[in-house]
Design goal:
Layout lengths: L2 H9 L6 H7 L10 H67 L1
Length: 102
């Protein structure tokens, strides 16, 4: 579908959101933009859409990395906690041996 056909098709919708109407129409005159203005508009939209997708993908990557790091740290915390429990038991046992010898 060409841009001209797209704009002709869009004219039929009278309940179009105001923000879209403003983007497609000239400021306050109500005139439709020229061919070059339409091309510029769609180039900006395409660039913005690509930028938004890149941003969303980067955010998803950061969130995934954060989840992986959190899982690693949880496992590390459990390992250290288990090691602490073993050392505390060994300490208690050595205290009993030391107290028995005194």
């Amino acid at each position: 579908m060409t841009l001209d056909k797209h704009f002709e098709k869009r004219k039929d919708f009278s309940n179009e959101p105001a923000a879209e109407q403003d983007a497609l129409e000239d400021d306050h005159t109500g005139n439709r933009p020229s061919g070059r203005e339409r091309e510029t508009y769609w180039e900006r939209r395409k660039k913005n859409n690509a930028s938004a997708k890149k941003s969303r993908d980067a955010r998803k990557t950061r969130e995934l990395q954060t989840q992986i790091k959190a899982a690693f740290l949880d496992r590390e915390n459990l390992r250290i906690h288990a090691q602490l429990m073993i050392v505390q038991q060994e300490n208690a046992c050595l205290k009993r041996v030391l107290c028995a010898k005194m």
